[in-house]
Amino acid sequence: MPKPRTMAKPGKILLEVEQLEVLFKTRDGVVRAVNKLDFSMVSGETLAIVGESGSGKSQTALAIMKLLAANGKARGSAKFYGRNLLEMTATEINEVRGEHIAMIFQDPTSSLNPYMTIEEQMLEILVRHRQMSRKDARLRALEMLTQVDIPDPERRIRQYPHEYSGGMQQRVLIAMGLLCQPELLIADEPTTALDVTVQDQIKRLMRELKEKSNTSILLITHDLGVVAGLADKVLVMYAGQLVECAPVDEIFYRPRHPYTAALLKAVPRLDHVGDYDMHPIPGNPPNLLNLPTGCPFRTRCAEAFDACHEMPVVREVTPGHSLRCHLDGGALK
What we know:
- The protein has helices at residues 57-64, 90-96, 108-111, 118-130, 134-147, 153-156, 166-178, 196-212, 224-230, 248-253, 258-265; strands at residues 13-26, 29-42, 46-50, 72-80, 83-84, 101-104, 184-188, 216-220, 233-238, 241-247, 314-318, 321-324.
- By secondary structure, it is an alpha/beta fold.
- It has an 8-stranded mixed sheet with strand order 6-7-8-3-9-10-12-11, sandwiched between helices. It has a 4-stranded antiparallel sheet with strand order 2-1-4-5, with helices on one face.
- The chain is globular.
């Protein structure tokens, strides 16, 4: 079997996204799903991107992987170790996918080929990207299935996806994503379609991955409970834009943007009994074809004032804490 890949040293810039735009041509006009997004990740870091449905989280990940729908277009740059993924040819990006960057999608049923056994699908990855013999590839696949707690892997590897439960399918996807020991794992809502018990298993698996390897994780989720247990840094998106980005403790205990604070207030808290009221965010996310002038959150924001009719710029309010808001940058309750 090949030797494990030497991962980049912790702290080295792994992914640098600058001025990323994702646009879709529709019959009603051009939809700007992601708007001038900037962020970076260092090796070994877990970055969570959070926000309501339609905020641009998944489209950001799909743009990085060059997997946008046919009517979609990405502009800007997404540099992986200095190479712009958005400018790569189909051949070049195929060499990166799976071996250097792997992605786990939220629906395992549509991600696994129903006509191929799990063994065939796993071995195809290793034979293609690592040039392993089928014998060695099978041993590696069995090892990964064991690591993700698939029982009786010798028997289960010969089965088809429909013979697995939803939770087991998701664990197989995680195993497939880790086969080539990628430097970056993108997980798009990895626990959304699963029951609570299986969600906990997936969280544990990802936590173990974070602790035992130097793999970086880009986590796309709306589940702040997952974020609290896994992330080092959190990027909050609204209407395709970054509104706040900071270390996880800053986001949870000292949020600076009204939208971030509103997201936290909308989450049920089991550690507060009798003295905590959950507050849903009023209104709905804006239509991306007809955004309000200025700050896109102002029509739902309890803190909005006259200056919010002008678009705020992103600024660093404390070291490592970026904010797009006209407020003074103080922590909100």
